[in-house]
Write a sequence for this structure.
């Protein structure tokens, strides 16, 4: 059996125990995400990959080459907040978190029991874009100003319930949604033949745009996810 954790060299984000010849087993090859006290993860995670191949036959008489498919375990979540009116959104007035229990991975890349991790945005920025194409003389003078936040999280699992939460500087919850349920809304456009977990494992970047109304509340009937416009009609997706 071959077990691979790839990307650990000079990687401050994850650790794997040192194995002992003659006593260690594959069950000792778990991988733990490093976190601050209280389960806080506020840094951009270095990329981590997992691979496994079982029952491989090897020859002593020749060189052996074993190809091990890898799954990327780290995902970048990019959140964009935009006012429907087009007025600027001040990014420092918002706090972005994702909570999940995915920081301790077994040798087979399943999850082991772990504390709740709170991922925080490692980058927050202001962004703007002019409407129209200046080369075609179609600019109308309107500029969209948005708030952008980036978080990096561990492997997203179809049977887990990570929660994306945005609060404002007054501590009021702007939105709180089940992240996996939302990113799977566009799975059908990607490849219907995949099961949910394969889709989550093949993606490693999610761009999500949420719109705010005049009162700063989430206008929850329209969301952009990885370029797809999702018009919501399921009240059950709101938390």
């Amino acid at each position: 059996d071959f077990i691979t954790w790839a990307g650990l060299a000079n990687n401050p984000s994850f650790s794997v125990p040192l194995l002992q010849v003659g006593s260690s087993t594959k069950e000792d090859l778990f991988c733990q995400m490093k976190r601050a006290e209280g389960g806080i993860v506020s840094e951009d995670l270095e990329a981590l990959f997992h691979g496994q191949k079982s029952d491989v036959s090897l020859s002593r008489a020749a060189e052996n080459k074993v190809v091990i498919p890898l799954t990327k375990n780290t995902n970048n979540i990019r959140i964009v907040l935009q006012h429907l009116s087009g007025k600027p959104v001040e990014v420092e007035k918002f706090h972005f978190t994702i909570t999940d229990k995915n920081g301790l991975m077994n040798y087979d890349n399943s999850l082991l029991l772990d504390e709740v991790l709170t991922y925080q945005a490692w980058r927050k920025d202001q962004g703007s874009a002019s409407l129209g194409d200046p080369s075609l003389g179609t600019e109308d003078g309107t500029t969209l100003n948005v708030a952008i936040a980036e978080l990096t999280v561990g492997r997203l699992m179809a049977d887990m319930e990570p929660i994306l939460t945005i609060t404002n500087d007054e501590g009021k919850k702007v939105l709180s949604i089940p992240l996996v349920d939302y990113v799977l809304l566009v799975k059908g456009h990607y490849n219907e033949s995949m099961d949910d977990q394969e889709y989550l494992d093949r993606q490693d970047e999610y761009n999500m745009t949420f719109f705010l109304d005049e009162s700063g509340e989430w206008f929850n009937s329209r969301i952009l996810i990885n370029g797809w416009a999702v018009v919501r009609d399921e009240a059950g997706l709101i938390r």
User: Anything to note?
Assistant: The CA atoms of residues 94 and 168 lie 4 Å apart. The helical segments are 179-183, 187-190, 196-202.
